[in-house]
C-alpha cells in the first residue's frame, strides 16, 4: 500500500478535529515505525479502535470529558437506537405471538397470556415514553428549524419524513393485500405474497434505519433547555424499563410455549423450539436492552450534574 | 491512585498512560522515541494507534504538554500535574512491591 493510500485509510477512523491536531504526528510515527512496509493487523486494529473511541468520547458516548448536555443527549440517543432495534425485533416476535392460544393447553394459557399482555404493555409503555420524548423535543426542534434556511430545514427533515411516508404507504398496501388472502396463503401458500412480505420487511427495516439516523441528526442540532434535558433522562429510564419488560415477557412466553406446545414453532418438528427468527429477534432485544440501560445510566449521570433549578419562594 | 474527572486511571504497570508518563519523566520525547524507550525499559510495544490514543487523553487531562514541532515530529513533556500523578502511582506500586517482597521473604535484587 502506498503511503498516501495508507494515510487516507488511517484518517477515515479519526474525526477532523483530532486529525487536524495529531494527524501529521501520527503519520510521521507510522513512517518512522513501518517506513513503506504494510501496517500489521494489530496496528490497524489499534488505529480503528482508538479513532472510534475518540469519536465516541467527543460525542459524549463514553468517558466524562464531553459536556454534560452532550453526554445526556448521547445517552438519550442510545435509548432511541435501542428503541429502533426493539421495533424491528418486536415485529418478528409479534408475528410469533399470532394464534398461540390454539396450540396451547388450557392449563398453560394464563401464564402464557400474561406474558403476551406483559410484552404488549411494555411496548405500549415504550411508545408512550417515545411520544413523551418527542413532545419534550418539539419546542427545541421547531426553534432549530425556524432558525434555518428553508432549504437546509428541508434537507434535515427529509431523512425523517420520507422513510415514515414510505413505511406507512407500503404497510397500508401490504395490509390491504393480506386482507384478501386466507390464513394459509398469508403463511407461505402464496409464493408471490411471501416475496412481497419479505421485501416489505426489508424495506421497513431500511426505512427504520434511515429514519433513526435522520432523528439523530436532528437531535444533535437542536438546543435543549435545561428543564427539557431534565425531563428527557427519566423518559429514557421509562423506555429502557419497557424494553426490559418486553424482553422478559418474550422469554417467559418462549419458555412456556417450548414446554407446553413444542410443535408451535415448526409443525412436525417438536424439537425445533429454537426458531432462527425468534433467536435473532431475542439477540437483538438483548443487545438493545444493554444499549438502552447504558444510555440511561449515562443520561441520569449527566442529569445529576445539571445545575439545580432555582427554588421557588412563597410570597 | 490518580483519578482524573472519572477518566481511566493509571492502574496497571502496562497501562499505556503510565508507560508514557514514566518515559517522559526522563525528558521530552516525540512519538517514535517514546515508543522505542518504552520498548527498552518495559518490554512493551505500543502500536501507533494506542500510543496516540493515550497521548490524546494525557494531554486533555493536562498530564503532558506538547512542545514545538520539529519536522512533523512533536515532542511531549511531562507537566507538574503529570509528575504528581506518576509519583502517586509509583508510591502505590512501591508499597505493594515492598509488602509483596516482605511476605514472600525475598530480598531486593534477588529474582
Characterization of this structure:
The complex is a heterodimer of chains A (315) and B (111). With 315 residues, chain A is mostly helical. Chain A folds into two domains: 3-56; 73-305, no CATH class. Chain A is 80% helix and 0% strand. Chain A has helices at residues 3-11, 16-34, 41-58, 68-97, 100-103, 109-146, 150-179, 183-189, 191-221, 226-260, 276-305. In chain A, helix 4 (68-97) packs across helix 6 (109-146), helix 4 packs antiparallel against helix 11 and helix 7 (150-179) packs antiparallel against helix 9. Chain A is globular. The N and C termini of chain A lie far apart (75 Å). The model of chain A has no long low-confidence stretch (mean pLDDT 88). Chain B is mostly helical and 111 residues long. Chain B has a single domain, classed as Orthogonal Bundle (Arc Repressor Mutant, subunit A), CATH 1.10.10. Chain B is built from four helices and two strands; from the N terminus they run αααββα. Chain B has helices at residues 16-24, 31-42, 48-60, 80-104, and strands at residues 64-66, 76-78. The longest helix of chain B has 25 residues, at 80-104. Chain B is elongated, with a radius of gyration of 15 Å. The interface between A and B is medium-sized, with 26 and 22 residues.
Amino acid at each position: 500500500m502506498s503511503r498516501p493510500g495508507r494515510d487516507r485509510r488511517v484518517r477515515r477512523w479519526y474525526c477532523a478535529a483530532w486529525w487536524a491536531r495529531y494527524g501529521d504526528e501520527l503519520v510521521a510515527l507510522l513512517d518512522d515505525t513501518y517506513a513503506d512496509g504494510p501496517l500489521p493487523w494489530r496496528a490497524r486494529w489499534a488505529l480503528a479502535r482508538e479513532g472510534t473511541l475518540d469519536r465516541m468520547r467527543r460525542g459524549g458516548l463514553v468517558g466524562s470529558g464531553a459536556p454534560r448536555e452532550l453526554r445526556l443527549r448521547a445517552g438519550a440517543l442510545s435509548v432511541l437506537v435501542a428503541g429502533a432495534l426493539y421495533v424491528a425485533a418486536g415485529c418478528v416476535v409479534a408475528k410469533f405471538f399470532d394464534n398461540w392460544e390454539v396450540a396451547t393447553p388450557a392449563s398453560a394459557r394464563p401464564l402464557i397470556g400474561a406474558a403476551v399482555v406483559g410484552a404488549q404493555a411494555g411496548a405500549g409503555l415504550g411508545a408512550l415514553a417515545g411520544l413523551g420524548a418527542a413532545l419534550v423535543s418539539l419546542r427545541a426542534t421547531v426553534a432549530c428549524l425556524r432558525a434555518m434556511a428553508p432549504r437546509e430545514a428541508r434537507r434535515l427533515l427529509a431523512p425523517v419524513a420520507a422513510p415514515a411516508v414510505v413505511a406507512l404507504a407500503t404497510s397500508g398496501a401490504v395490509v390491504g393485500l393480506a386482507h384478501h388472502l386466507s390464513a394459509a396463503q398469508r403463511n407461505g401458500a402464496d409464493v408471490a405474497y411471501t416475496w412481497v412480505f419479505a421485501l416489505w420487511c426489508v424495506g421497513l427495516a431500511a426505512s427504520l434505519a434511515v429514519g433513526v439516523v435522520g432523528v439523530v441528526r436532528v437531535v444533535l442540532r437542536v438546543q435543549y433547555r435545561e428543564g427539557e434535558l431534565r425531563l428527557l433522562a427519566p423518559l429514557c429510564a421509562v423506555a429502557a424499563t419497557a424494553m426490559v419488560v418486553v424482553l422478559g415477557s418474550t422469554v417467559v412466553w418462549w419458555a412456556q410455549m417450548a414446554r407446553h406446545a413444542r410443535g408451535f414453532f415448526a409443525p412436525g418438528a417438536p424439537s425445533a423450539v429454537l426458531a432462527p427468527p425468534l433467536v435473532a429477534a431475542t439477540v437483538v432485544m438483548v443487545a438493545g436492552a444493554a444499549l438502552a440501560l447504558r444510555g440511561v445510566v449515562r443520561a441520569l449521570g449527566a442529569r445529576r450534574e445539571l445545575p439545580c433549578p432555582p427554588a421557588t419562594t412563597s410570597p | 491512585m490518580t483519578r482524573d474527572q472519572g477518566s481511566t486511571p493509571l492502574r496497571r504497570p502496562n497501562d499505556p498512560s503510565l508507560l508514557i508518563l514514566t518515559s517522559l519523566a526522563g525528558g521530552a520525547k516525540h512519538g517514535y522515541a517514546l515508543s522505542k524507550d518504552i520498548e527498552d525499559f518495559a518490554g512493551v510495544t505500543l502500536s501507533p494507534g494506542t500510543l496516540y490514543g493515550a497521548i490524546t487523553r494525557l494531554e486533555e487531562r493536562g498530564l503532558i504538554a506538547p512542545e514545538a514541532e520539529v519536522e512533523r515530529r512533536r515532542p511531549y513533556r511531562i507537566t507538574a500535574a503529570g509528575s504528581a500523578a506518576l509519583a502517586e502511582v509509583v508510591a502505590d506500586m512501591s508499597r505493594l512491591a515492598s509488602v509483596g517482597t516482605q511476605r514472600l521473604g525475598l530480598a531486593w535484587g534477588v529474582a
